[in-house]
Amino acid sequence: MFLKRISLCAAALVTASAVALSGCSSSDADGGESDSSSSPTSFVTPRTMPEGKGSGVADGVFPRTVKHFKGETDVAAAPKRVVVISTGQADALLTLGVVPVGSTSGDGADLVPAYLYDAFPDRKAELGGVADVGSRFEPNLEAVANLKPDLILMNKAGKDSDKLYASLAAIAPTVVTQGTGLYWKQDLLLLADALGKRDQAQTWLDEYQGDAADFGKTVDGSPTVSFLRKNGDRLRVFGVASFSGSVAEDAGLARPQTQSFTDETSHDISNEQLDQADADWIFYGVQGGDTAAVTGAPLWKTLQAVSDDHAVAVDDDVFYLNVGPTAARDVLDQLRAKLGR
């Protein structure tokens, strides 16, 4: 029997107030349940170039001056040696046919996530040669400089972005995207502009959006989908304005009322509040892969989705950490495999 459903199909462009989200993964003040009596406004993940950003010139034209979230950067020629600082940017580069020469690893994740090796098997050797430049919050500047990059990519979320940008820009041209799962589409376009590949990125987004909408039309009824993540001591449910939430929104999938919030990426919950993760389907990820960290919770077996065998363990890197286009396609494929016909 389906739970109570509230459809969150996107109906309008995102308003400025909805876009004013920040931080990588946040929680409400007390970790409690969102107001179940409220009706969330229509919401669409930002999917165009941020206003006033980009170069404004055609693909392949260099030099170009790229306006970004920390100013303007001159890119003299098509970049060939790119270092990425933030999660999801290696994914975006590979989607556009570029392998980074250096990358950071974050939150205990692998330098190059396994899903990227799976998605780009022909680039396996190059991916194995990607250099580790340290933490995405405090990268090793000497290691970055030693790679002699002609472009560095970072985002401004969750770090001292002014200080980091100044340090990186002293090494090589640096472009700053907004960051967080909410902004992955507009970040892809801005990153692509710096590479001179914006048309390629837009084509990818158009095809992805079309596939997501087509999949949504195949879903019977209005099953709700829940997104749950365990990393370290934190247990969180993810709302509409999150990476996985954006893919569900693209397909017009309904979300449980407890995850209908759009003011934050996620809400922290306790094991005693695990009912906030319940829905017709639960897609849960655990950093490190030990699913018992979730399934061993006392209330886990009381959830309707668990009773219905509709609780699906997913790759944490794909659903909750890397927020890139290839990960988004993977999320869409997994939703389709369970809910499509």
UniProtKB/TrEMBL annotation:
InterPro entries: ABC_transptr_periplasmic_BD (IPR002491), Bact_iron-sidero_bind (IPR051313). Residues 81-341 form the Fe/B12 periplasmic-binding domain. Residues 1-20 form the signal peptide. The keyword Ribosomal protein does not apply. Pfam families: Peripla_BP_2. It comes from the Bacteria. GO terms for cellular component: outer membrane-bounded periplasmic space. The keyword Chloroplast does not apply. GO terms for biological process: iron coordination entity transport. Its main location: other. Residues 27-58 are annotated as: Disordered. It is found in: Cell envelope. Gene3D superfamilies: Nitrogenase molybdenum iron protein domain. SUPFAM superfamilies: Helical backbone' metal receptor (SSF53807). Keywords: Signal, Transport. Residues 27-42 have a biased composition (Low complexity). PANTHER family: IRON III DICITRATE-BINDING PERIPLASMIC PROTEIN (PTHR30532), IRON(III) DICITRATE-BINDING PERIPLASMIC PROTEIN (PTHR30532:SF25). This is Iron complex transport system substrate-binding protein.
